[in-house]
Amino acid sequence: MSRLFGEVHRQVQDEQDTRKLADRIEEIACKTEIDADAKGFIESLDMFFLSTVDHNGRPTVSYKGGLPGFVKVMDAQTLIFPFYNGNGMQLSVGNMIGNADIGMLFIAFDKPHRIRLQGVSSVSRDPAWLSLYQEAEFVVKVTLSELWQNCPRYIHRYTRESHSRYVPGEQCQTPLAEWKRFEFMQDVLSESDAKKAQAAGFIQVEDWVEKIKAGAPDV
Description:
The chain is 28% helix and 26% strand.
């Protein structure tokens, strides 16, 4: 019995004469534990892509970034990652509370290398979990279903210029997102963000747009 393929996958595989190839790849690559190599790769990264499903059954994908090691492998079946201050829509968090099944894509553009992971999520605000991350608003625990390494041949090579200045760190104060400093946003911000905006000073949308056009980093 395949863990990955259903009837429709089998139909397409048979049409393309790739069923045997697909079975061999699943046999070799599909894992139900996070081994030392996968742990090392996952914890070396500063970003991943998260796939969740909303209340209408629609899939969505979002980018999650942090400092290297912000995704922590706790054991062979479990990993965790933080949610930092965001835009307030809580789409990914809400989706995971409503449907715990998620997908994660870990990818390195300088190697290149990638791992796909499927698991069951649990969103927590437990102080013990939050204490593992500076300024985390939530911590997500993921129980592994399957993971597998993908062929890297179509991954383009890129190099990192810098980490985002908005990722919480111990060496500096985390700045507020600049768009939260627009005056017309002040009446809808959380109390804590409103205080930060007041302290940092308001900015004009036109100035922010010009910075983007000029290619200013981390606006």
